[in-house]
Amino acid sequence: MSDPIRGQTAICGLGITEMGKVYGHDASWFAGEAIRLAVEDAGLQKDDLDGLLINPGITGMMGTGISIPLQNYLGLRNLRLLNHMNSFGATASAMVHFAAMAVHHGMANYVACVFSDAPLQQGGSAGAAYGGAGRRGPTGMASLMPAFGFYGANTSYALAARRYMEQYGITNNDLGRVSVTQRRYAVDNPHATMRQPLTLEDYHNSRWIVDPFHLLDCCLVSNGAVCTIVTTAERAKDLPSSPAYIWGMGQGHPGNLPHAEVETYTTSGATIAGETAYNMAGVGPEDVDICEFYDCYTYTVLRTIEDYGLAKPGEAIGLYPDDPSDPEADLPLINTGGGQLSSYYMWGMTPISEGVIQARGSGGDRQVEQHDIVLCSGNGGTLDTHGTLILSPNAN
Amino acid sequence: MAYDKPLPNPDEQTQPFFDALQNHKLLLQYFPSADHYQFPFSDRCYKDWSTDWEWRESTGSGEVYSWVRMHQLYHPSWKAEIPYTLAVVQLDEGPRMNTNLVNVQADDIKVGMRVQVVFDDVTNEFTLPKFEPA
């Protein structure tokens, strides 16, 4: 049985800025662009916005990210809902969840949910942008981490991937199959940063970052912003844009306790979040047409596939062709815009933005024919936080 | 050549842990009410929220929970070491700790491999608890 809120709310506007190495603007500027584009896409006016939910990316930890002052920067005078939210990569889903509940219960009519980031500086590397963030000389036991040479999210996800790979006999070539598949989709995505086709040989030749991860196992770092506008299904029907109806919502946050009693690296919050969202939507894994999964690393995609019940433990790689660069190969309908690995890294807004595009049928050359049920995931920390959205072009 | 890698920076609460390392002892926090060993340091047991605890010496025995080889240079002092081996070791007392694996070839490392703590006196002031095959 589905929940009465299924199909009662919708994403009615989507704004995606130019992505990647776009210099000369700060995160507020990108946020302003994305919100402007989303309002225009929805067929709304500025003053219609009465809700604003804000998620800064890594610049939020560097002190230059967007926060509550964004309201005044954009002169939003009608807000009945305003917050700065952060559950890392699960935030984008969570913003849409809270926005949907708010509009459903009359707390607001049109809520802009925005992610914006601008960590890339001209002449600086992506590694410097992320690896250096927040490194201010930790004290206490945290100071052991740099003393042992642990740096960045790459290391913790590589540790997670290794444990999974050894448990199920997954190889680097398998991770490469995920990477090459997503690049093939990015070739057809005009928003994507990396649009040169890849082969498995290219994958193996890409430099090691932290073994088992090559460079091509790791997501991009992008400047840019994405905004979605959430409203009720009733209001969405009166707008010129085609809505992506929200059928299911769920969250699951297992955390990350380093103890023998807790398995962390080969589990994620998708199991709990997915069950909640499937129940709300009244659908199951067998009904899903398209998946847009948070893919900070290739491994994250395999983890997520399994935790949503789309493959048995250790068998997610079976959904991928042996050589995805073969033009004859059938690609799984997963991360159809290239994902964070190849299109753009807007935390949880990367999967949601492509999910909205696919649900609306506006994917152009990469549009999937059957797009009734689109499953989107957000994931944060080292598989610590998780959010799910199930979108559909159909109200019911 | 002088040791130029990042060094620990103890605070008041963790000073005893770092002092013990210099004496080649690995300490863990033990919370009696939950019969629970905890790492890294916290002023509260996450199982029953008790704030009563004591330091206990670990056996230093455990197994590799996972491991990686770091190739990326984040800090110039690691240049000569790259690639080096990072690991998470699950101690027999329960807690997992991040560390370096030493005295082992990468090809020989496996998840689940038994390891034992080895104390690396990196400077006169600091000793790091690393692990080697048991």
Summarize the structure.
The complex is a heterodimer of chains A (396) and B (134). With 396 residues, chain A is an alpha/beta fold.
Summed over residues and divided by their number, the pLDDT of chain B gives a mean of 97
* Measured distance between first and last alpha carbons of chain A: 13 Å
First-last Cα distance of chain B = 30 Å
Structural class of chain A: alpha/beta
Q: Strand order across the biggest sheet of chain B?
A: 6-5-4-7-8
Low-pLDDT residue intervals, each spanning 5 or more residues of chain A: none
Anisotropy-based shape of chain B: globular
Taking all Cα atoms into account, the compactness measure Rg of chain B is: 16 Å
Number of helices of chain B: 1
Give the strand order of the largest sheet of chain A, numbering strands 1, 2, ... along the chain.
3-2-4-7-1-8-11-10-9
Largest interface: A-B, 41 and 45 residues
**CATH class term of chain A:** Alpha Beta
Number of domains of chain B: 1
Q: CATH topology of chain A, what is it called?
A: Peroxisomal Thiolase, Chain A, domain 1
Number of strands of chain A: 11
The average pLDDT of chain A is: 96
Largest sheet of chain B, in brief, is:
5 strands, antiparallel
List the helices and strands and how they pair.
The complex is a heterodimer of chains A (396) and B (134).
Chain A lengths: L8 E8 L10 H16 L8 E6 L2 H4 L7 H4 L7 E4 L6 H14 L6 E7 L8 H6 L12 H5 L3 H17 L3 H16 L12 H6 L2 E4 L1 E2 L9 E9 H5 L6 E9 L17 H12 L8 E3 L5 H10 L31 H4 L6 H12 L13 E7 L4 E8 L4
Chain B lengths: L14 H8 L4 E5 L4 E3 L15 E4 L3 E10 L13 E8 L4 E5 L13 E7 L7 E6 L1
Antiparallel strand pairs in B: 1-2, 1-3, 4-5, 4-7, 5-6, 7-8
Report on this model:
The complex is a heterodimer of chains A (396) and B (134). Chain A has 396 residues and is α/β, with parallel strands linked by helices. Chain A has 14 helices and 11 strands. In chain A, helix 8 crosses helix 12 (298-307). The model of chain A has no long low-confidence stretch (mean pLDDT 96). Chain B is globular, with a radius of gyration of 16 Å. Chain B has one helix at residues 15-22; strands at 27-31, 36-38, 54-57, 61-70, 84-91, 96-100, 114-120, 128-133. A 5-stranded antiparallel beta sheet of chain B has the order 6-5-4-7-8, with no helix packed on it. In chain B, strands 2-1-3 form a 3-stranded antiparallel beta sheet. With 134 residues, chain B is mostly beta strands. The chains are: A alpha/beta (396), B mainly beta (134). The interface between A and B is large, with 41 and 45 residues. Strand 5 (208-211) of chain A pairs antiparallel with strand 4 of chain B.
